Amino acid sequence: MRIYSKNLWNSARSQFAEGSFEIRGGRLTQFLWGAPSGKGAKSKIKDFGDLMILPSAVDLHVHSRDFDESHKETFESLQSQAFQGGVAVMACMANTMPRLDSLERLKDFFKRTQKLKVRLLPFAAVTKNLEGIDATDWDKLLKLPIAGLSDDGKPILNEDMMRSVLKVTKKFKKLLSLHEEDLRISKASVIHLSASSLRLGIDGSPEDSEWTMVERDLALAHEVKAHVHFGHLSSAQSVELLRRARKKGVSFSAELTPHHALLTVEDYESLSPTLWSKMKVCPCIRVSTDRSSLWRGLNEGLLDCLASDHAPHTSFEKDRPLVEAAHGMISMQYHLPLYHEVRSRAKVSAAQFVRALSQRPAQLLGLQNEVGDLKEGLKAHFVVFDPKGEQTIHFDRSRSKNSPFEGKSIKGRVVEHWIEGGRVF
Ligand SMILES: [Zn+2]
Fold it and tell me: What is the tens place of the pLDDT at every residue in 348-397?
């Protein structure tokens, strides 16, 4: 069967164009550009009109839960959301219960996820139980088919530890994903320190807790000549540090999240206090000038990965006074619509959008010859997207409900999602 659209992602030209392709053995083949004619017309054509067809997303930052927290999310419920959200590959953080900090735990992860259609690559923990003290068996764990190492949820405060882990991830050519938060100054990251936090009367967390760590780790990556990956950046200062590091030739990649790209701390003031905790994430959602810096960072390719930081929680942990509530929100089910909203508001080019959504994260996982683009020979993972389709956000595929986007209307809808040549949504 031939798949046709007036807005098919053309990888060679980095833009959307009229064209079509065939699927053979679950892979993409025989791309034809322009209107369907002679050669293309031989087989049956599935005509998607002017709907967009783009590569499925690759998400480098997911909290999968399952194991002892399957009441929050299971691998199956996560996959079901990824089908609708347009995500085909995801890297999962090590802060499951129990933690992914040993060979046995990782083998259990592989066993439980191998039959899924969405590909899940785990990060192994940098330190045992993510405590930042004793290193896990890096040499042994990095030989496994994992995304890399990460203590996400917790920073690596020890500089010697940081230097050593940069060296080992460099040696194995795997990602080191960092949660940048200096716990000595973040005040538990309850809410961003701002005019809004003062008006609400809550002890605020300064953005210094993030950028001081970003500054340290860019310097260490430069020193060791290793690549460093920053999870969920939130502040203008961090983006500025990336800009300077790029000029110096430091090798890095960095994530944006939908919540940091769409919300601001001022939004708290229009919410009733019982809803504040829905906005609580770590790092905190900051002011609108930070948000516009993140948008600029995305346009400049400094923030080059669109991640979700999907983090399910029970209402018992989440629906509490702001100070006590857990950090994090879910978004996987609406990954593409939320990022399409980011794209319109931040005025992101098609090239930069597809690069950050799919191409760059696939490359960082070493999977660029398999996924993350629409090219001859790659797996037929693609999304048919209606940029004009309005819908109401309703997280009915997750076992958790924690999101301030629930009930909101959004423009942009995944019409179909295909993984390895089969339709999954
Ligand atoms: Zn984190």
Answer: 999 999 999 999 999 999 999 999 999 999 999 999 999 999 999 999 99
Residue 383 placed within a domain? no
Distance from Cα 10 to the centre of ligand 1, integer Å: 34
Q: Which helix (H) or strand (E) holds 15?
A: strand 15-24
pTM above 0.85, yes or no: yes
Distance 96 CA to ligand 1 centre (A): 13
> How many angstroms separate the alpha carbon of residue 154 from the centre of ligand 1?
7
Closest residue by Cα to residue 151 from 169, 143, 140, 107? 169
- Residue 381 lies inside a defined structural domain of this protein: no
Residue 104 is assigned to a structural domain of this protein: yes
Same domain, 180 and 39: no
Q: Name residues with Cβ closer than 5 Å to ligand 1, which is an ion.
A: 152, 179
- C-beta neighbour count of 279 within 10 angstroms: 21
The confidence score (pLDDT) of residue 43 equals: 67
Contact 250, 224 (CB under 8 A): no
If asked whether residues 9 and 136 sit together in one domain, one would say no
Overall domain count for the chain: 2
Q: Are residues 365 and 175 in contact, defined by beta-carbon separation less than 8 angstroms?
A: yes
Tell how far the Cα of 417 is from the centroid of ligand 1, in angstroms.
28
How many whole angstroms from 252 Cα to the centroid of ligand 1? 17
Which domain, by its residues, includes 27?
2-47
Instruction: Answer whether residue 100 is part of any domain.
Output: yes
Distance from Cα 423 to the centre of ligand 1, integer Å:
32
